[in-house]
Amino acid sequence: MPDSHTHLDFVGGDPGGQIEAAAAVGVDRLVQVGVDVDTSRWSVELAEQHASVVAAVALHPNDAPRQADLDEALRQIEALAAHPRVRAVGETGLDYFRTGEDGRAAQEESFRAHIAIAKRYNLTLMIHDRDAHADVLRVLDEEGPPERVMMHCFSGDREFALDCVKRGFLLSFAGTVTFANARAVREAATVTPLESMLVETDAPFLTPTPYRGRPNAPYLIPLTVRALADLTGADLAEVCTAISANAERLFGPWSP
Length: 256
Ligand code: NI
Description:
Layout: E1 2-6, H1 8-11, H2 15-24, E2 29-33, H3 37-49, E3 53-57, H4 70-81, E4 86-95, H5 104-120, E5 124-130, H6 133-143, E6 149-151, H7 158-166, E7 170-173, H8 183-191, E8 197-199, H9 221-232, H10 236-251
Helix pairs in contact: 3-4, 4-5, 7-8
The structure holds nickel (II) ion.
Nickel (II) ion (NI) binds at residues 5, 7, 33, 91, 202.
């Protein structure tokens, strides 16, 4: 099982230990995600050192408006995107929860630039969308999406899920699908076909039930996968096979 979106640098400690703990429970492939130039570079270096890790590089939508020189930061992200261990451009997108009106122009400019980089390097676009569903789709429609798009930590409802599936996007579900009070996103999972589904931790955030309160890490992916099997009514092995194949299609192969 792959973890399609994790931040081992934020989890802290020895990333090698986290990678081993994950492999011990069958989570044998990770996508390590950068949120600015420094963490993107760190992600590429980790992917160079571990065959089970590939990298995603980007300026996070909340970081984009804080760049002293956005153009220069985007140039550095683009330089990293050319690295063979980089398989996705992300996380990028729109976040209207943490970024106010004053930062939105820079955020959207950065999102458009990341879409262009994903297309130039034929990489998967990994989208962060917080309280911005309609505008994320608007910008993608205006720019024309790259061939492969993943909605990271899918947070929409049933209708938005169907909208994304119709466009050929993959929906990546995080620990939130294990939360009893996350009704909308749990319903979204029930209408998502297995061939459009991915799973992620977004570690160290969004720890699945029943371990909420401790930091999340890739070894906890099995809890989220079981929740997806319960919600969809699909056989657990079938869910694992589908998600693994989807991740290879988007990010793979992991091993040279
Ligand atoms: Ni993230």
